[in-house]
Amino acid sequence: MSVSIKSPAEIALMRESCRILSEVFDEMSKIIEPGISTKDIDREGERLIRSYGCIPNFLNYNGYPASVCVSVNDEVVHGIPRKHHKLKEGDIVSLDCGLIYKGYHSDMARTYGVGEISEEAQKLIDVTKQSFFEGIKMAKAGNYLYDISAAIDDYVTPFGYGIVKDLVGHGIGTSLHEDPQIPNFKQKRKGIKLEPGMTLAVEPMINAGGWEVCWLDDDWTVVTEDGSLSAHYENTILITEDEPEILTLKL
Ligand code: MF3
Ligand code: CO
User: Fold this and answer.
1) 56 alpha carbon – ligand 1 mean position (Å)
2) Which residue lies with its CA nearest to atom 1 of ligand 1?
């Protein structure tokens, strides 16, 4: 395993890549409303990415056929956008998207409500988001990677939710997926020591029910085994000597 340490010049490019991606999310999420299709969201995402002169990094990644992963309700991640899959009032929809700016990748995900959503759905979204922030409290130089994993687990588990185990966060830089892998649940070991200049995509995926997931016949869409709702929250962060810098969050 080799974890890259970004130079100040590379960090500047990562910052810009991530800043643009958060703009894309702001714009793309505005079109979410009952009646639009998951394909409409993908089209808008791709249009925005290209409007900034950037490249969608998900498109054709291992054959993935779109620029945005659009996962509805019990779909956890990697939902393939479809013209005939229309969002309806009360759905929750997870958007996961990334781009390449001057060779540097960014990656981010959010779960949104479509119109009015149930209290249970909102709580799942809120806990998933907060679990990211609990996790990254541990993300500083000198701490260990799996301190992040344990902090997410310690926060989420008391709610009775299931933490997805089959998919994990990752390093990111000149590739979308770099070492190390970042599980969202407790590990027996400590993992690598965190160092300034590491850029990581931390991305808890949390199910309202059990943690188990399965894959649909399209070989991409991951769904909860028990049909419960699932939420996703991801940012690309930079490890520093103290607080991590959240590169995909606009200040
Ligand atoms: N968004 C995923 C991640 O966070 C990667 C998606 S790959 C794709 O790591 F091919 F599905 F786009
Ligand atoms: Co990611």
Assistant:
1) 11
2) 96
- The residue whose CA has the least distance to atom 12 of ligand 1 is 58
pTM exceeding the 0.70 threshold for the entire prediction? yes
Residue nearest to atom 11 of ligand 1 (CA): 78
Please report the DSSP string for the chain in residue order: -------HHHHHHHHHHHHHHHHHHHHHHTT--TT-BHHHHHHHHHHHHHHTT-EESSTTGGG---SEEEEETTEEE-PPP-TT-B--TT-EEEEEEEEEETTEEEEEEEEEE-SS--HHHHHHHHHHHHHHHHHHTT-STTSBHHHHHHHHHHHHGGGTPEEP-S--EEE-SSSSSEEEEE-SS--SS--PBP-TT-EEEE--EEESS-S-EEE-TTSS-EEETT---EEE-BEEEE--SSSPEETTS--
CA of 153 to the centre of ligand 2 (A): 18
Give the pLDDT of the chain (251 residues) as one tens digit per residue: 899 999 999 999 999 999 999 999 999 999 999 999 999 999 999 999 999 999 999 999 999 999 999 999 999 999 999 999 999 999 999 999 999 999 999 999 999 999 999 999 999 999 999 999 999 999 999 999 999 999 999 999 999 999 999 999 999 999 999 999 999 999 999 999 999 999 999 999 999 999 999 999 999 999 999 999 999 999 999 999 999 999 999 76
**Substitution site in 78, 199, 222 for ligand 1 pocket (most atoms within 8 Å of beta carbon):** 78
